[in-house]
Amino acid sequence: MNVVLASSSIDGGIGCWDLQTGAEQLRYKTCASPPHGLASIGCRFLACSQLRDPSAASGHVLYWSWSKPQAQVKSFPAEPIKPLAGNSEGSYIVGGGSSGDIYFWEVATGRLLKKWHAHYRAVTCLVFSDDDSLLISGSEDGCVRVWSLFMIFDDVRKQQASHLYEYSFTEHTLRVTDIVMGYGGGNAIIVSASEDRTCKVWSLSRGRLLRNVVFPSIIDAIAIDPGEHVFYAGGRDGKIYIAALNVESTPSNNYGLHIIGSLTDQSKPVTCLAYSAERNLLLSGSEDGMIRVWDVKTKNILRMFRHSKGPVNNILVVRLPYLLSRAEPKVQASSRRNEFSLHPPLEKYANSSDEDMDNRAIITLPDTIDLPSYLSSQLINDHIKQLQQQGSSAAAEMEVKRLKLDGQRSMEMFQQLKKVYDNLQEFCVNELLDGQAIEGSKGK
Amino acid sequence: MVRSKASSKKQQKKGIDFKKIKRKLGRKLPPPKNATNTEIKSKAIVLPEQSVATNKEGLAVSKKGLTLKELLQQTSHHNAKVRRDALMGIKDLVINHPAELRHHRYAVIEKLRERISDDDKVVREALYQLFKSEIFPGCAEDNQGLFISLLMNYIFNAMTNLAIDIRLMAFKFFDLVVQYYPPCFSLYAEKILQSYEDILRKNQFYLEDKGKLKTTLSGLVRCLSLLPSKKPESEKCVSGDRIIHAFEPDTPTANTGFSTIIKKLKELVLVLINCFQDFIPLLNSMPQLDVLSFDCILSMLQSIDIAVRFFIYGIHEETPESICDQTLSSALSKKLLGVFPLYPKHHLSVKEDDRYFILNVVIAAIFLHLRELVCPSTNVFEKFLEFIENALLGTICSSSRSGKATWEKHIPLLLPFIPKLASELETGWQSRILESFTRTFKDCNPESSLKLACLSMIEEMLIPRGYMHFSKASDTVVLDYQTVWIRELPLLLSLLGDKQPSSSQVVLCLLLRLGQFSGSNPFLFGEYENIQFTLSEFYSTCQEGNLYYGPFMRLPRDCQELSICCLYYFSNLNVLLLKSVTFCCLCSELEPFIFFRIIEVLHAAYKAGHIQIADHISFFMTLLSRFKILPENICPVRESDVKVSNHGTFKSLTTMLSSYLSQIGDSSVVFHIVEKAILGLILLQPPLENACAMLRVLIVLDSKPTRLSEQSIIALSNFLPGYLMDVVHCIPEDDVQTWRYYILPCFFMFDRSSKLLKLVLDVIGSFLTDSNLSLPSDTSTRYATDSLSRINATISLLLLIYKDVKVQKIISSFRTEIGSILQSIASLQSSEVKMTLEERHRFQSSVLEKTFSPCEDGGEQPRGRSSFGGNIEKIQGLANSGGNCLSQILQNCNGIFEREKGVQEFVHYITLLEHHVK
């Protein structure tokens, strides 16, 4: 089940609708998010940073499980966090602070694994590459930086290098408002939008500017088409512009070079965009609290969701786990136990006493257990300990699995034996019958 | 023939089998004397073309009538003069027939290349000129690699020729080739360096002929400058129209072959150093440093400089340390740096001083590069530091104009080392160097390239790129200078004015970077905030009531945009700067694009918390109330005037500001702030457009029922009647769109507050009483001032009100007020005392005109009834105004309203009216 999630800067909770049917689902309560502050962590739960009044010294990040409207876990990082992002498996959360620092937490333990000074001013957006190895951050100072996580966690290389980032793109003159990334890992393109009325297309492999598109208004949100033919840019003048990535556009059109058209319906500024690849839908959130679902081909509005009075500033399209969407209470209960009992709140500071412990990541091959496959060795040690004590749920589960396997094997054995027996019987019967027949013929 | 011979032989053998034939050997019978020679001999008959008669039509010929083929043949003639003439002929031909060269270029090259090692000097020179002026420019776009490879072997051949002149000429040729096809150096680098080395070793010649040495050395400098270096300026090529996901062909990187030449290059450097050393005694013996020897020495030093840079920063496998081994470094430090500084033995001319200065600068640059590898001893180092300090201060150079020019040209060579020196030196030297640098920065001409070089160094020192770390102890020293630099920037902007936009752009870029960076450094943060005061002059200044626009207004658009972006990064935008920016906004010469950009950026800054809400709102209000609309009067808003008028801009400004204001926060709070501001401004009687814009903003923020306070309703009720009447007065009746634009906000207000409508109607009624009309001092209206136009306006206003369905519904509950207005109109008509006959007639005819014209089309409209009713009502009022009983009229009116009478009724009243007028 694909659901649309939306949050607003004014407390209206997180709205949740079924994209297919349009039915409203559970509304998650008390959430006032900054732009790019809402993230679904590996489709297992929702995390959202919270807007706080400027005087507040610490940030505020909330977790919701899919099944409960109340926030389940509250954490208070050391400074206000604006953008949040999780890697695709949901094992790490990254947050951008208002001082320009980036925080890197492990979800399973809540430990702050790394924190580094990334920008001169507040971080405004964070994006993971689809292979999770690169992190791209945009900031209020107009800078877009590309970080390699290998570099971030490599202390030796870090000291040798003059800078941490892979690339630093400084061509934007004002705040970066949104970043999207194309496909192709390290060879992908990224598109960044800024308040200087431009969107810029960068190459990750060559580390340079490929294209500069100037729009008639400030662009606050962008979404990229999965074929990378065009990207959509939502402007403050209420239009969603379509800018070409592939074709050479004719310079004599209404909007400017590379802009090939627009989707319009509203006069209110567009604040966020999301693309649902499944049915080629574009979702736009606007200042008036509405979420519009556009059919990209026909440029018509298919559906509208009303979120709240205030501006919508985050939209996510999430594929809910199958188990959850079936809504069987029993299964939910067990999955919730899996999800939530495991996740402690995010830590405020990097624990110095942990420094001596090895926090290298261990990469396991993906297996059947629905645990993330990137785990720090400490976490794995914990699991081992639990297994040894035979007390944990995971251990019990594994025991069950082992027993099941045993049972299966026994069944196989039984089948085999049965087959042998059948064969034997048939043979005997044949023998007997044959013998009788011979005797009979003899007797005749 | 052969066959017959064979057969005859056979026959012979058959017949005479064993017969011995005696033959005499060695002797032959002489041919008989009378025998005829039957042999036929032929010879090729060469008929040289008869020059007069040959048909050369259609062929390209030179002035002397020779074709290219002939000319090429002549180039190998044994007579030098003919060869030269042939070359001249080719040149001539190619100039007149460029296509000829394009078609036969390989043939031409193959023939001409033989002449590179020609014995005759004149021929070589002619060949050089031919190549330089025609052949290379003509073949520029072709497959040059092949083209060049045809030539190169001959050039190398000539380079090893015994005659020194030919060798030198070969270098000249090679120099030409490199100019047109730079990659050829990388292809033949090793061989070329070897040749240079060989020729420079022959030290006897250069002392004789410095002119030739100079050309050779300048060629060497050109070649060496093609060596790849690690510090390339980031190429800013935004190729906009390419396809993003396109395949890109791999261009062969030119620097692949350079790792192998390091050894050769090292030898060359040693030779150059020796060469330099040979020159030194010569200098001392000479009375003065002449131009040629100066150029030679300079080229040598430059070559060494480039080579050293390649060793240290170049892209190659070997480490710099392994290259600069004992032999090289000792040679460099003893023979080159040991003689530093060079100074004239005899002070003869100012020019000479400058020449020595240039040489010293280059040596200092070499030294500073070398410092990366070899740590110099302290006293040598200090010698150089002293030189740098003096050089920066300009004390070494002569003070004449040419001296100043040389100084400006050559000082940038030393500047790149300043940041590194400043970060590494101990406090004493650090402050001396920084001081002299700051002096250079301040003193140099704002439009010079030196200023730009200084600016880029300042950027490097202000905004660290990771590798720069000022030590803690020296922080205060550096901070002092940083303060000076930062404060200098806005002044520099004012100095530059609009004379050199490119320099202004560099300064603005630096300011922007500074703003972006300032967030993380508390010191810079404070300094950047302080810039605001001086920066405001860049936009505009207000002195003694006069407004002076700064350079901002005259700069090109991209500079303007950059400077606007700088505003965003002030964490607390002060009122002075905001004011001066506002003045710029209000200037009618500002482009609309920049105008909207300013508003956009300032709103973004507000959102980021950089502008206080009170300042921000008052900025908006100032724009609304003081924006000057051209042309001043609203009437002629026609398509033809679009060019001069900025109505469109102002309209979009209004919508923009109202949407921004509604985004600011909770609308009721914002409304209360804005309400107060707008009412204060509106009572000052602004021009109609501005008043309309303010009303529009107000209704966007308002809701139904209204949030307006009691006082403001009263204030508005005093303002609106005048406004409405002015609008009606000024806008022609048929311009429906325009009057809707101006009146609609009022209708919205009436819709939201019926109390306001009542008050407004009361005021309109009171306008029309005798006492008010006679008062000329009443200033509530700007245009409709005399009584006649006021009555006209009132009537058309009422008509407009009746046309609008929504307002008409509301107004139906204010019959008494309407009645009293009508009564006053009626009584006004009856009071004949004050009007002359003519006036009265004019008035009546205008009333008629006004009432009829909308009625006629009103009958056809779907909602004709309402306008009908309204008109009939008024016509009736007028018709009976001759002192009839008013209440009866009103009753009739109401009756008409309710019963909805048809056209007959209308016609009836018209006749009634007509009757009365008569």
Describe the protein.
The complex is a heterodimer of chains A (444) and B (918). About 7% of the residues of chain A have low confidence. Chain A has six helices and 29 strands. Chain A is α+β, with helices and mostly antiparallel strands and 444 residues long. With 918 residues, chain B is mostly helical. Chain B contains 42 helices and two strands. The radius of gyration of chain B is 48 Å and the shape is elongated. The interface between A and B is large, with 41 and 30 residues.
The number of strands of chain B is 2
Largest interface: A-B, 41 and 30 residues
Q: What count of helical segments of chain B does DSSP give?
A: 42
Beta strands of chain A, count:
29
Order the strands across the largest sheet of chain B as they lie in space.
1-2
Tell me about the biggest sheet of chain A?
4 strands, antiparallel
- Average pLDDT for all residues of chain B: 74
Give me the Rg of chain A, rounded. 28 Å
Mean pLDDT of chain A: 81
Span from first to last CA of chain A? 78 Å
Report the oligomer. heterodimer
- The number of helical elements of chain A comes to 6
Shape of chain B: elongated
Shape of chain A: globular
Structural class of chain A: alpha+beta
The percent range for helix content of chain B is 55-70%
Strand order of the largest sheet of chain A: 3-4-5-6
Spatial extent as radius of gyration of chain B: 48 Å
Keywords (chain A): Repeat, WD repeat
WD repeats (chain A): 116-149, 169-212, 263-304
InterPro entries (chain A): Quinoprotein_ADH-like_sf, WD40/YVTN_repeat-like_dom_sf, WD40_PAC1, WD40_repeat_CS, WD40_rpt, WDR18/Ipi3/RID3
Protein name (chain A): Protein ROOT INITIATION DEFECTIVE 3
Summarize the structure.
The complex is a heterodimer of chains A (444) and B (918). Chain A has 444 residues and is of the alpha+beta class.
